[in-house]
Specification:
With 329 residues, the chain is α/β, with parallel strands linked by helices. The protein folds into 2 domains: 174 residues, P-loop containing nucleotide triphosphate hydrolases (Rossmann fold, 3-Layer(aba) Sandwich); 62 residues, Alpha-Beta Plaits, CATH 3.30.70. The chain is built from 12 helices and 14 strands. It has a 6-stranded mixed sheet, sandwiched between helices. A 4-stranded antiparallel sheet has the order 2-1-4-5, covered by helices on one side.
């Protein structure tokens, strides 16, 4: 399915002018298994990009390639102007990575985990302690900083993991399913942290199995299936790709119901419930048109509701995995 995103202007070196991350034709195979079949990405600076896809679609492989953990078989990519093929150290200096599984060492304290990360970034001792204290406070971990990380809850470990990622002040952060296994409150807390990062100008590359998470956070979403990007756009643009949106009119007066049912085209009626369902693409213009048309006929509905496909519908329509829909929510 073609992308609904307009092409991004490119600089003379082929990299999108305002992109924090860009990739063209990334490919990766393991034996005969094609994991990535030539994907293109353009991620604007200071935005949240969400990569969705079923298990095994290639999401983690894409993150590993772009974060220099593995190399692609073909294609090219840039991160903040650094060529992934010729300037690996430049890329690594500019990014942070938080994977599906925590990098926190449970045998030492939260503070010690932070200071260890500061040492890995070759920060002077005083600066490392200052940054560690600042980040522990920012992530509400000061009170437990002296306790072993093994005593932390799942949400606290994820916050510590992300705080450790920020020690080097990365401008691009890869979050590979960062809220998997967290309870709803911890997940919402993490969303707030991600929003704060973006407000500071950080670019976030997010993979997630929670469609609500992508809907809440992402400025741009791509759906990956069988190693190919099958759709890309904002959440609202993707929802409009899938049929099923409709306007629902409910009446209490049977005469008004019959009048509307006779006058409206392509309408599905439920005479017992006195409701009519009109296909709709969900645009404000179309909704206003229906209201104006009813008003011109002197017909008044007692209730009007607009129903649009959600990201669940989009995801399962594009990946052909609808039988597992309830399990994936």
């Amino acid at each position: 399915m073609p992308s609904s995103v307009m092409p991004t202007p490119r600089r003379g070196d082929g990299q999108p002018a305002s992109a924090a991350v860009s990739a063209v034709g990334l490919r990766k195979s393991y034996g005969e298994k094609i994991v990535l079949g030539g994907i293109d990405l353009t991620i604007p600076a200071g935005s949240v990009f969400a990569l969705l896809g079923p298990n095994g679609a290639g999401k983690t492989t894409a993150v590993k390639i772009l974060s220099t953990l593995i190399t692609a078989d073909a294609g090219e990519a840039h991160v903040l102007g650094h060529d992934l093929g010729t300037d690996v150290q430049g890329v690594r200096a500019a990014i942070g990575v938080t994977g599906q599984f925590s990098a926190v060492d449970g045998l030492i304290t939260g503070e010690e985990n932070m200071l260890l990360m500061a040492d890995l970034h070759h920060l002077p001792k005083a600066e490392g302690r200052r940054i560690a204290a600042e980040l522990l406070g920012r992530f509400d971990l000061t009170e437990v900083a002296k306790k072993p990380a093994s005593t932390y809850s799942g949400g606290m470990k994820r916050r510590l993991d992300l705080a450790m990622t920020l020690v080097g002040s990365p401008r691009v952060i890869f979050l590979d399913e960062p809220t998997t296994g967290l309870d709803p409150r911890s997940r919402h807390n993490m969303w707030g942290i991600i929003r704060d990062l973006v407000s500071d100008g950080v670019t976030v590359f997010l993979t997630t199995q929670y469609l609500e998470e992508a809907d809440e956070l992402a400025d741009l979403i791509a759906v990956l299936n069988d190693g190919k990007i099958v759709a890309e756009g904002t959440a609202e643009e993707l929802k409009r790709l899938i049929p099923g949106g409709h306007i629902r009119l409910r009446f209490t007066d049977p005469v008004a119901y019959q009048s509307a049912a006779s006058a409206l085209r392509e309408v599905t009626g439920d005479e017992d419930a006195l409701t009519l369902q009109i296909p709709s693409d969900g645009t404000q213009r179309e909704l206003r048109s229906v209201l104006d048309w009813l008003d011109s006929l002197g017909i008044e509905a007692d209730e009007l509701t607009l129903h649009t496909p959600d990201l669940d519908d989009v995801f399962f329509a594009l990946t052909g995995n609808s039988q597992n829909k309830e399990n994936a929510r």
